[in-house]
Amino acid sequence: MRHKIPCFCDNTFTIDVPQEIDLDTDPQYIEDILAGNFMNFICTSCGKKHKPEFPLTLNWPSKGLILEVLPELDRGEFYRRKEPKNMSPEKETVISYPEMAERIAIIRDDLSVEALEALKYYLFVKADEAYPENEISVWYNAKTGEALEFHIHGIKDNEVAVMKTPLNLYEKTLEDYKKNPRTDPFASLRIKSYCSLQNLLRPEELK
Ligand SMILES: [Zn+2]
Q: Do 94 and 12 lie in a common domain?
């Protein structure tokens, strides 16, 4: 689909973006998404980099995943909309391209989204208690040996804190989830097709 991108330099340029991608057929998109290079566009006049967000669907049949990606601007709309009754059980939603990249890393590493978002919640609570004035966000980065690596934003300006969590804490959280999927934090992490720490942290106007 073609879109016009207006730049601050007064130039407007046209881009062509896919609405649906199959990650098994076109695996190069996985690297682009993880590297943050996906849908970056350079203004044809001034050279400024633009990172617009458009809705799209990522199909990943080998992982049993249909990922609906919504722009950050549609976050409010997501909570208001009605889901179709015959929604595919494989459909998952993420809101914003950073969440898309994080989810691709989670699925690449064969981790449970529920257990992962619960771990992020525990890390968030700790960081938020230590720095109550700051706007903290927690992101999954990668599996490294016997640990899961998270990036915590907002502790210091323009710095990312790297936090490693032992894999066995993840496994224990996954066990808890399988035993008690309807208890918190797991129950509150998911709203329809969207499983995210953001569902616990969302402001009153999005409830
Ligand atoms: Zn420009």
A: yes
Give the integer Cα–Cα distance in Å for 58 and 100.
Answer: 9
State the virtual CA torsion across 31, 37, 38, 43 in degrees, nearest 10: -160
Cα(99) to ligand 1 centroid in Å equals: 27
Range of the domain at 39: 1-108
Tell me how far the alpha carbon of residue 52 lies from the centroid of ligand 1, in angstroms: 14
Phi and psi at 193, nearest 5°, equal -85, 5
User: Ligand 1 center to residue 157 CA distance, Å?
Assistant: 28
Q: How far apart are CA 140 and CA 163, in angstroms?
A: 10
| Short-list 39, 34, 61, CA closest to 49 | 39
CA of 42 from ligand 1 middle (Å) equals 8
Q: Are residues 59 and 155 in the same domain?
A: no
Half-sphere exposure of 141 toward its Cβ, with a 13 Å CA cutoff? 16
pLDDT at res. 195? 97
pLDDT in tens, 143-183: 998 999 999 999 988 899 999 999 999 999 999 999 999 99
Q: Which of 108, 141, 157 is the last residue of a domain?
A: 108
